[in-house]
Amino acid sequence: MRVAVDAMGGDNAPVVEVEGAVAAVREFGIPVTLVGDTDRLRQELAKHDCKGLDIVVHHASEVVGMHDSPSDAVRKKKDSSIRVAFELVKAGKAAAVVSAGNSGATMAAGMFVLKRLPGIDRPAIAQVFPTLRDRTLVLDVGGNVDCKPLNLVQFAIMGEVYARSVMGIANPRIGLLSNGEEESKGNDLTRETTAILKNISFDYAGYVEGRDIFYGLVDVVVCDGFVGNVVLKLSEGLAEAVGKMLKDEFKQSFIARLGYLLARKAFNNFKKKVDYAEYGGAPLLGINGVGMISHGGSNAKAIKNAIRFAHEFVEKGVNERMAEKLQANYPITVQQQREPLQDQAAG
Amino acid sequence: MRVAVDAMGGDNAPVVEVEGAVAAVREFGIPVTLVGDTDRLRQELAKHDCKGLDIVVHHASEVVGMHDSPSDAVRKKKDSSIRVAFELVKAGKAAAVVSAGNSGATMAAGMFVLKRLPGIDRPAIAQVFPTLRDRTLVLDVGGNVDCKPLNLVQFAIMGEVYARSVMGIANPRIGLLSNGEEESKGNDLTRETTAILKNISFDYAGYVEGRDIFYGLVDVVVCDGFVGNVVLKLSEGLAEAVGKMLKDEFKQSFIARLGYLLARKAFNNFKKKVDYAEYGGAPLLGINGVGMISHGGSNAKAIKNAIRFAHEFVEKGVNERMAEKLQANYPITVQQQREPLQDQAAG
Fold it and tell me: Which residues form a coiled coil (chains A, B) (predicted)?
């Protein structure tokens, strides 16, 4: 079971992609295909001892930049590393894709080449957050900015299956992100969504608030991609700001600096706990295949872990389980919002 | 110029309200009326040396609880401390209200008793956030969950005037919260809003992201109340979680504990920088009067500072300036969304 790595996508490509891939093959025995400029990749691979490692290089002549639009990237750059990586999956030459490139383009390429999972209207990007208790999966943090209730219901089902299968949570609790826990809170979207979620066969906890994400009150937090993106970037920004503010304070006196040095291990343990590299990437849920989106600034460790989780995603049959769960909750998950049905009703 | 304090609203009422009021009168010379159960308040006041301080008590027999619905609270509890406080403003016996109680009820009571500022469709609650550069005002963090573009435009104008008048920022930069900086990002609401904001006579910076709030990229961040509430509570939750995680790490070894003790001053300076009590409350913008909403868990210092900022809000003539700015940008700020106009166009 081979993982195709878009080796040209990230901010530090292809250096970290190659290093991470070599580490994944060596540590986990997962075969990897590096997709990108063959010359550049061979040159990078030469820096590593690859003897006996199942690593192959597959040529792609183009690269989707961080500022390319997702749809243009798919339509105009037909030989881009991200699109070619998904083509390898389509052709049965790989089982999953890992990319630290343009996440919108990765989502678009995945959908374009592999199509959607049956029963899913819009795929979502899910992100694992560290919490006081353990970890919480938040979705969508991707590009679904204007969602209908049914989109969020499908996100909830996909998130539940991923949490159960890959994160190893026995009976995941699902929460819907809102502006208060009471049923009287929420907006039009959450009120319609919560009414449907109550009828799905899983452990639905109702509304949760922003603070509950880091307290780990539930295992899966569902929201639209606009709100999810704000949550993701606010968290990154706040964590960085807190770090910088503390650092500035430590610089103010010799005693404080000494204290910092003594407590450094505690700081490093803390940093490790909140380090995205440990979680290895954000699964792209809802395409008919497996994609793992890593942070643009990923290091080799993040790429290595993304390859591991992509492998588990396939091994655990997550997509098959999602399709089953959608089927088991049919017709709740499809009947409410489909326009053709509404048109029929109106006509 | 007297400030009416809802002395029964907060989690620690009336202890911190009385203590904060006494401190505000003593330190800033601002006359205060404490509104609530007279017996209880006199009993609490007796703990302080109030000689020569201009503090009066005004009776209100009811209290709006944190779980009361805002509209019920106003309609059913006509003698509640929050409603009576606003009635004092209406009667000209006070110039501003401070409350650490149910924020939805405070907003509802303010609107019900004092009505809206001319040109404002929906009042908003604004919150000051500490940033790496200075401070950023975010609004709405209150109850406007499903907004129209015009609501956000009015929030932007109110925020700009508040930042200029009370926060002392000479030429505030305004940003619209979105899921990316590029114009191609955003949802239906932000796309329509940004088109209008470009024509307002202020320094509009376009879309900003979640991370930009703590970097202090702009002085005022505009969003709907659903997103703003998630931003507010996520920030509180993350800051608390980071504190707890660090504390746990420090407990792991003697050396780390020693380091923490030496660096304690740095930690305390940092805490002070992010302490909401320093900012004293969230201004309620858009009612025809002045209201300052303090955190439910406020301490006396937070109440004291809220009284100070409420006083400045009145002194600086913020409402008059907002009305002027709305007028100066007429008809952009009203013509786009008013249903009667749309109806006329359709008819």
Answer: none
